[in-house]
Amino acid sequence: MAATILIAASVFFFPAAMALAASMDVVTMTIPNRVCAALAIGYFVLAVAVGLPAHTILVNVSCGVAVLALMFAMFALGWIGGGDAKLAAAIALWLGWGVLLDYSLSAAIYGGALTIVILLGRRQALPLWLSRHAWIARLHDSKTGVPYGVALAAAGMMFYPHTEIWRAAAGL
After folding, report:
1. Long-range contacts of 12-18 (CB under 8 A, 24+ apart)
2. Which residue has the higher pLDDT, 124 or 155?
């Protein structure tokens, strides 16, 4: 019974957090700190619960810390938002070094596609019935950035089944 709960938690926690982060970014243009903190804490709880070796956990921590440092440099340059930086680091903690390059490339491609779609959408007049929704009007506003958390979360979901925590939970 406990093993089934661990597998369910491992399968559902990360995707649920990705969906929450992406939707919050679209609707509010922010990714709450509590979502990133829950991802980090959830990783440690589930990693220990599924029996990941301490070495694997520490290697993933190094990945998360490295990504956090790089993302905060990008944040300091004004290239990304602070929530995106923290989300990318929390995702890197879960994914680890083994898929980080593929994850990063996928996130960049998804982010580029999302940016193009939003920029093209902003060239069109927003119908009145859509402009009544504050979050849609905000997305349409050319002074607003792009909810890049959507791309980060989508890429994270793509590579989550290739992680050590996934394999450990599934008994692989």
Report:
1. 13/42, 13/46, 14/39, 14/42, 14/94, 14/156, 14/157, 14/160, 15/157, 15/160, 17/42, 18/91, 18/153, 18/154, 18/156, 18/157
2. 155
